[in-house]
Amino acid sequence: MTRSIETIDQTYVWHPFTQMKxxxxxxxxxxERGEGAYLIDVDGNRYLDGYASLWVNVHGHNDSAMNxxxxxxxxxxxxxxxxxxxxxxxxxxAKALVERAPGPLSKVFYSDxxxxxxxxALKMAYQYWKNExxxxxxxxxxxxxxxxxxHGDTIGSISVGGVETFxxxxxxxxxxxxxxxxxxxYAYESEDEAMRVSLEALEHVFQTYGERIxxxxxxxxxxxxxxxxxxxxxxxxxxxxxxxxxxxxxxxxEVAVGFGRTGTLFAVEREGVEPDLLCLGxxxxxxxxxxxxxxxxxxxxxxxxxxxxxxxxFLHGHTYTGNQVTCTAALKNIELFDERNVxxxxxxxxxxxxxxxxxLEALDVVGDVxxxxxxxGVELTSDRATKRVAPTVWAERVVEAMKExxxxxxxxxxxxxxxxxxxxxxxxxxxxxxxxxDVLRERTFE
Length: 446
Ligand SMILES: *Cc1c(COP(=O)(O)O)cnc(C)c1O
Prior knowledge:
Layout: H1 2-12, H2 20-23, E1 31-35, E2 38-41, E3 46-49, H3 52-55, H4 64-74, H5 88-100, E4 105-111, H6 114-132, E5 142-146, H7 155-159, H8 164-167, E6 177-180, H9 191-209, E7 213-218, E8 222-223, E9 229-230, H10 235-245, E10 249-253, E11 277-280, E12 292-297, H11 298-302, H12 324-339, H13 342-352, H14 354-361, E13 366-372, E14 375-383, E15 388-389, H15 392-404, E16 407-408, E17 410-412, E18 415-418, H16 426-442
Parallel strand pairs: 3-16, 5-6, 5-7, 7-10, 10-11
Antiparallel strand pairs: 1-2, 2-3, 4-12, 8-9, 11-12, 13-14, 14-15, 14-18, 17-18
Helix pairs in contact: 4-12, 5-12, 9-10, 14-16
The structure holds pyridoxal-5'-phosphate.
C-alpha cells in the first residue's frame, strides 16, 4: 500500500516548483495525516511542521473545532455562486474582515489563491484610474514593486515580481513594471543606508513617472519568498507617505505576513499604515482550505459604481468565488483567534525564542538571522567577513538533516526558513531552533 502510493504519486503527479526528474529518482515524502503541529507520513513517521505547510497553518492540523465548523457547513451546502446571489458565510466573513481591517478598507472581493488576490488588486488599481478620468489617465498603466518581490505565479503577479529564478523564463510575456531596490539591511552597511537607498529610488520613480503609475505594491514588513528579507522599522510608513504625496495607490500584499504571522492580525497595523488595497490568503482559513481576498477602500469601490452593466463595472470573477466551505473555515479561524488568544501566543513565542536566535547568529556559518514575528530566515555564508553566499546545496543538506531528526523546514537558496505553525507550543519551536543549531554547529553539510 505504502510503496504503491509513492509510485502512484511519482507516476501521475506533477509537483509545483519541482524538478520532476530529480523528484522521481528519490523516495518521496507522502503525508497521510496531521495531528496538531505534526505531520505524519504513510510510513507512520512524525514530523514537526516547521514550515506551517507552506506558511498557512495556524491552529495545528486536524483541529476538532475547525473540522466541526467545516462539517456543519457541508450539512447545509458546499457551494453556490456569488454571481447574481449571495450566501451566508461569505457575507459574515466580509463583515468580520472589514471590522478588523485597518483604516478605511471596507469591501471584500473573494478569490481562491494569493496570486488571484494580487491579480485582482492590480486590475482594480488600473481600472480605478480609468474610471476616475478615462482621458487623463489613459496611460496610467505602470506598476512599481520591490526587487526580489514575490506576489504569486500568474502572469500579472509575476510581472510585479522580482525573483529571478522563478520568473526569468517568462520575461517576454510580462507587462512593463518598475522595480526599486529592496531595503535589505544585510546587503548594505546599515539599516539606515538600506532604507535611504530604497526610499530615494522610490521617490525618484514617483517623480519621474508620476501619473503613469497605477500603484506601488509591497509585501509589508518582510519580503517572504525573496528569502525572508526584513525591512527596517519605519520603512513601510515612509512608503505610505510617499504614496500619499504623489497620489499613487498603495497595495499591501499580506498573503504571507497577514493573519497573525508577524504578531498582529494585519502586518500594516504595526506601523499604522492604511493601504488602498490589501490582499490576504495563506493563513486566512487557518491553513485548511484555499481562500483569498482583496480588500478595498470606499474610494476605490465608489469609482466602480455606475448605471447598469457598463464599463465601470469590475469584470472579474472566479467560478468558486465566495465558496461557503472556505468562508466558513475562515470565519471559524477568526473566532478561534480570539478564543485561543493566538496573537498573544505568537507574541510570547517571539519573545521566548530571542536567545535561541542570538545563539544561531553567533555561528560562523551564519551570515544573517532575520525574524519578523514567526517568520525566521537564517542565511548561510561560506565566509562571514565578506558575506560570501553559501552554496545552496549546504542549505538543502541542512533541510535534509533536519528531516532525519523529525523536523520539516525549507530553504530558499542559501536561506533556511523557519515558519512554524502559529499555535505551535513554545517548546516545539525551541526544539526546531536547538536542532538547527546542532546541525549547523556539526557542519556535516559541507
Ligand atoms: C504565497 C504568496 C502569494 C501567492 O499565493 P498563492 O496562494 O500561492 O497563489 C502572493 N503573495 C505573497 C506575498 C505570497 O507569499
